[in-house]
Design a protein that fits this description.
By secondary structure, this protein is mainly alpha-helical. It has eight helices and four strands; from the N terminus they run αβββαααααβαα.
Length: 195
């Protein structure tokens, strides 16, 4: 009876995974940003007075980001990014222990790849379906894109407050410079906005 129950549970789990997998969105063109219209009002000398709607910076390739920014983001978001395959099982276990000890949700275990999957393709709903789809998409992204490409997609599309999407838009808004010119302290400030 135990064997039959395990087989039935396994079959149900497999069917659930197949259903979640076939309902996944298409990841083609992920490295292309679909910009929503926005308005930025500047002075004659180029200083930003205000902006309305979503603001996007220039798309920056991984190798053009300052190393200080990459290291700051890795330190705050996903220390093992270059070591895992989209899912950090050690990070999930660590977050579970911290959350149980705190008696509430205080830490997440999502990787940068999972955040790309969730932020671009899925809703923020905390459902089993969304979490499973996020994990499946993370594996798909890791199979299709290099770690450097995933990091560049993340840094070019992540929301950093005040309607700014991508670190270049945020660098221009908060520091009046391109993200390629960020100094260590500025990189740390932007990475801190992610948490």
């Amino acid at each position: 009876i135990l064997g039959t129950g395990l087989m039935a549970a396994g079959a149900l789990f497999l069917l659930m995974m197949v259903y979640f997998a076939i309902t996944l969105p298409n990841i083609d063109g992920l490295d292309k940003i679909k910009k929503q219209p926005g308005i930025t009002i500047k002075t004659q000398d180029g200083m930003v007075l205000t902006s309305y709607g979503d603001v996007y910076g220039e798309f920056i390739e991984y190798e053009d980001f300052p190393k200080s920014l990459i290291h700051a983001v890795l330190a705050t978001e996903d220390r093992r990014f270059f070591e895992h395959s989209g899912i950090d099982f050690w990070g999930i276990a660590r977050a579970m222990v911290v959350n149980v000890q705190a008696g509430r949700f205080v830490q997440g275990g999502s990787t940068i790849t999972q955040q790309v999957a969730k932020n671009i393709f899925l809703t923020p709903d905390r459902t089993l379906r969304r979490k499973v789809q996020e994990m499946l998409l993370a594996f798909m992204l890791e199979a299709r894109y290099s770690k450097e490409e995933i990091m560049a997609i993340y840094l070019n599309r992540v929301y950093l407050g005040a309607g700014n999407y991508g670190v270049d838009a945020a660098a221009r808004r908060y520091f009046d410079k391109s993200a390629t010119d960020l100094k260590l302290v500025e990189s740390a400030v932007l990475a801190g906005l992610l948490t």
